[in-house]
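Continuing the batch. This is chain 6 of the set; chains 1 through 5 are on the previous pages. Same settings as before, nothing changed between runs. Recording input and output for traceability.
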Amino acid sequence: MASLINLGMDAAAGGLFGIIGTALGRVAGYFERRQTHEQEMRRWTHELALHELNMKSRLQESELELAIAAQAGSWAGLEASIKADAALGQGSQWVINTLRLVRPVLTLLLWFITAGIFITTQDSEIVKAAVFAATAATLWWFGDRAPKPAG
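Output for chain 6:
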């Protein structure tokens, strides 16, 4: 009975670590997004300063027209690239379904392996480690499936 309680405690600890891992991933994601936004602001500020310096250094009208034409060509290239990506569409349904099955299949295999370890070994430390790993992985994988915040 005591070993079942220990096994249950190991499963709970594995679950707790899985949830903590998911939470830490979300916190890290928040700081990563914030850092990315700050970096983009610095990049835009730098690009604005460079653009102003270029405008001041070009005194002749022909040079200004050339810069505007180059900028317009750049936007046209970006627009063409976006249209080309949109024209690709989605993958076939069986590929999408196969990709959606990766985590559930891996989870089932992990729990089958854990059950095999539980049945075949007499070493309680190995069983505890297997249960801990399976529980942590399951909660990590599926705890990470929640919708991501926009932004």
